[in-house]
Amino acid sequence: MEDINILLTTASNYCQNGDYKQGIHLYSQYITKNNQNPIAFYQRGKAYFKIKDYQAAQSDLSKAIKLKPDSAELFAERGLIYYMAKQQDAAISDFNTAVEMEPENPFRYASRAFIKDHMNDLAGAKDDYQKALELDPEDAISHNNLGLVLGKMGNHKRAEEHYKDAEKLDPKNFGMKTNNAKETPEVAPQPKPEPTPLPNIKKEEKVSGTANFGNTLKALISSSEERKEFWSFVKNKVFKATK
User: Fold this and answer.
1) Which residue in 75, 125, 155, 221 is a FRET match for 108, CA 20 to 30 A apart?
2) Contact, 45 vs 64, CB < 8 A?
3) Residues 6+ apart with CB under 8 A from 122
4) From 1.10.443.10, 1.20.1070.10, 1.25.40.10, 3.90.1260.10, which CATH number describes the 1-68 domain?
5) Residue ranges of the domains in the chain?
6) 159-203 residue pLDDT tens
7) What spans are recorded as compositionally biased (Pro residues) (predicted)?
8) What residues contact residue 170 under an 8 Å CB cut-off, 6+ apart?
9) How many whole angstroms separate alpha carbon 96 and alpha carbon 74?
10) pTM exceeding 0.70
11) Number of CB atoms found within 10 A of residue 36's CB
């Protein structure tokens, strides 16, 4: 088992250096020897995503989910792939599953809200951002994004309140970004199909034959990192009103 785990480490190193095709080749070699490791499918799926092979990425995330069906992170990751592949119904279904699996995680609602917003489900996006803020009232991004949604719904007064809350909580990113309530709200631009939402490929840890793949996978895509990567992706895609 230790010998084939070298393939995981080497594959990860290639991907870290931007050689995703060679990384995919090595992940594939590993999988032919051990097709019961969800981490291998997850990592290869990310590599496929980086080269915009969305179908292969979806397939690998689906295989990882089959092996680790209780991972909300995997459903959310696959949802992002579906969204970038313009399969919106499949995307929202996976985000729904992630929410159902982690109903107390505010990021699950906030990320689903972003997708709903861009599907023009403004009411659904508003509800999800409000739920995210109920669970985490100090989330500046959710305050800002809820303000954007409310502005598009015509509720400019409430939108201003959330912009101000975002500015108070995170003046570095949201300071001086208030919206003129009398102006027609601008629509947030659609994300460009760039392979950026998935977390960066990490170097593989040494995995023993009795390793708990679920815990290892959880460490690879921790909630904090997942959250950081998702909002890094949308940072320049979401309209932030300026004076």
Assistant:
1) 155
2) yes
3) 116, 149, 152, 153
4) 1.25.40.10
5) 1-68
6) 999 999 999 999 988 875 444 444 444 434 333 333 344 545 555
7) 188-198
8) 140, 141
9) 12
10) yes
11) 9
